[in-house]
């Protein structure tokens, strides 16, 4: 079998960032898949499941309620390697197009207080596996270290 595109990315030189992973045509619509990379693969430790799960619930809720973007949000979820998340949006977009949206989203998570949306036995298949304090820490770090400093090197995959 042929390697899929995401397995051809140079993970040795990949930095935390916001990358366009792929663009697909679905009918007349373009769907842009973003790679929201939180850690440097195989260099920094992978994220733990519990904070990733909390981020998933909070980001998905925030994004699907954002007045400007909610109609374009298709999916937000974790990478299996636990180094970040995928965000799929309707539209032919680039990393800088979503910088403000991501800053708002991850600032919301860094400041979040209260019950995590959907974190109940009724609403989630693994509701006990959440860690809000660490999710807040990761979100703040991503805002400060990545989203506020987007550059060519952390928005374009290494050659």
Automatic annotation (TrEMBL):
Gene3D superfamilies: S-ribosylhomocysteinase (LuxS). Its cofactor is Fe cation. GO terms for molecular function: iron ion binding; S-ribosylhomocysteine lyase activity. Its EC number is 4.4.1.21. PANTHER family: S-RIBOSYLHOMOCYSTEINE LYASE. Belongs to the LuxS family. NCBIfam families: PRK02260.1-4. This is S-ribosylhomocysteine lyase. It comes from Oribacterium asaccharolyticum ACB7.
């Amino acid at each position: 079998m042929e390697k899929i595109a995401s397995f051809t990315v140079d993970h040795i030189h990949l930095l935390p960032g916001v990358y366009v992973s792929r663009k697909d045509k679905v009918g007349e619509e373009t769907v842009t898949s973003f790679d929201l990379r939180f850690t440097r693969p195989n260099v920094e430790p992978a994220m733990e499941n519990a904070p990733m799960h909390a981020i998933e619930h909070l980001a998905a809720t925030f994004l699907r309620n954002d007045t400007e973007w909610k109609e374009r949000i298709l999916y937000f979820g974790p990478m299996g390697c636990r180094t970040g998340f995928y965000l799929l949006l309707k539209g032919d977009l680039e990393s800088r197009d979503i910088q403000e949206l991501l800053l708002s989203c991850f600032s919301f998570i860094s400041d979040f207080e209260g019950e995590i949306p959907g974190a109940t036995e009724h609403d989630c298949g693994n509701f006990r596996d959440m860690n809000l304090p660490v999710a807040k820490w990761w979100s703040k770090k991503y805002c400060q270290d990545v989203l506020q400093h987007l550059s060519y090197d952390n928005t374009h995959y290494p050659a």
